[in-house]
């Protein structure tokens, strides 16, 4: 099996996302660009029609830069094809792309003004890092909409999409998964605090600018988080490696 280690990493993301309730039925999609060092270069992505809790390393598909399946059995769902192919082709730095409709961050984008604000420590992880796509174009089922979404990232690694969901990119599966986790947690805090009825305690831009850099330093936490997740899956769902 080509790209075994990369396949295992992406399978970890799917299994953990399923546990945390981030998926919508058999919709949504994660992908990872792989080089040619251990097999054909291309993009690993989930096949259409599978629950994320079913996915294993070997079940993932490998498609080339033109979108043709070159390893694996199955098809790629249309919106996955257009969103992921466009972002990978336009943003080589986006090694891993996680696109889903998790409840809390999606709820933020279903309401006005549709913004994450600096009202929690975890929100400072994303200070200055989020692009907002305020145009909902329906299903991303053609090349033009895929390219529009890719362009809307505007150099940022994370995008929140009005009336839709979120897209998190990163240089590794570990980084993208860590950001996705804390973004959804940040949105949860914001919604719960807002629903308390006393108003949000929002930090000033000056304070956020001062505090965010230290909070955005990784200090080994990203890899540590991923390794802890993988240890749990190795114990409880070891078949994900197959």
What does this structure look like?
With 242 residues, the protein is of the alpha+beta class. The protein has one domain: L-fuculose-1-phosphate Aldolase (3-Layer(aba) Sandwich), CATH 3.40.225. The protein has 7 helices and 8 strands, in the order αββββαβαβαββααα. It has an 8-stranded mixed beta sheet, sandwiched between helices. Strand 1 and strand 2 form a beta hairpin. Helix 2 crosses helix 4 and helix 5 packs across helix 7. The longest helix has 23 residues. It starts with a helix and ends in a 6-residue tail after the last helix.
Write the layout of secondary structure elements.
Blueprint: H1 4-19, E1 29-34, E2 42-45, E3 61-63, E4 69-71, H2 78-90, E5 96-100, H3 103-108, E6 130-133, H4 143-152, E7 158-161, E8 165-170, H5 173-195, H6 205-216, H7 221-236
Parallel strand pairs: 6-7
Antiparallel strand pairs: 1-2, 1-5, 2-3, 3-4, 5-8, 7-8
CATH topology: L-fuculose-1-phosphate Aldolase
Structural class: alpha+beta
> What would you say the CATH architecture is?
3-Layer(aba) Sandwich
Q: How many distinct domains?
A: 1
Q: Give the low-pLDDT segments.
A: none
Q: Could you give the order of the helices and strands?
A: HEEEEHEHEHEEHHH
Major sheet, described briefly? 8 strands, mixed
Number of helices: 7
CATH class: Alpha Beta
Cα radius of gyration in angstroms: 18 Å
Strand neighbour order, sheet with most strands: 4-3-2-1-5-8-7-6
Distance from first to last alpha carbon: 10 Å
Helical residues, percent: 25-40%
Number of separate strands:
8
Shape: globular
Mean pLDDT figure:
93
Q: Would you identify the CATH H-level superfamily?
A: Class II aldolase/adducin N-terminal domain
Strand % is: 5-15%
